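Reopening this one. Same input as before:
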Amino acid sequence: MNHNLEDTFKLQGKRRQLVENLKKNGITDIAVLEAIGRIPRHYFVGSGLEEKSYEDIPLPIGSDQTISQPFTVAYQTQLLEVHSGQKILEIGTGSGYQASVLCELGAKVYSIERYESLHRSAVILLKKIGYNVNLFFGDGYKGLPTYGPFDRILITAGAPEIPEVLLEQLKPMGILVIPVGSYDVQKMIKIIKMADGTIEKAEHEKFIFVPMLKGKVAQPINRDIKSL
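Same output, byte for byte:
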């Protein structure tokens, strides 16, 4: 494993091309595109996958989990309508890439990961590259009621239904984005919690995510992530 966090001219060029491809595929939020353009995605993938990190594909990060393809990250973030200073809860830290995008947009990010090895790797990596994210090892289905309510909640795994406990942790006029459906395919759902507590729901494109599971999994640290 390569322990050096390098960002070569070649990889920077690939990142610029990725941003152009995201524009062509319908991502219109300039702030989101600029955030993705600033973040070296190859820091967040396993050793040996640097050259593939700017292809629009998911990649393995260990623990049978993946880093979402860049279009999916951009799409969810665009739906979230992030503004600087907002407090955002992310369910499913993974290697920390999505949390980094939210940080680049000026959010105060709280993120939960159920796999201890991924959580520990993300803690090391995000600190090393300068992102201040509040990271927790725990059950995403429970959220973080002690730290809520949140302006935005983002779920980065496919859920069979919308967890009510997470809706309870969303501020009035807050937005929650979640992929909902079966194991094979989910539909992206955007929820706005109105001032009176009622819910407005809009369905968007279909995606495929790893499943959102309950509980947490204690594991040795994942050495496939460039975290040192």
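So the earlier flakiness isn't reproducible anymore. For the record, The first strand starts at residue 59 and ends at 62.
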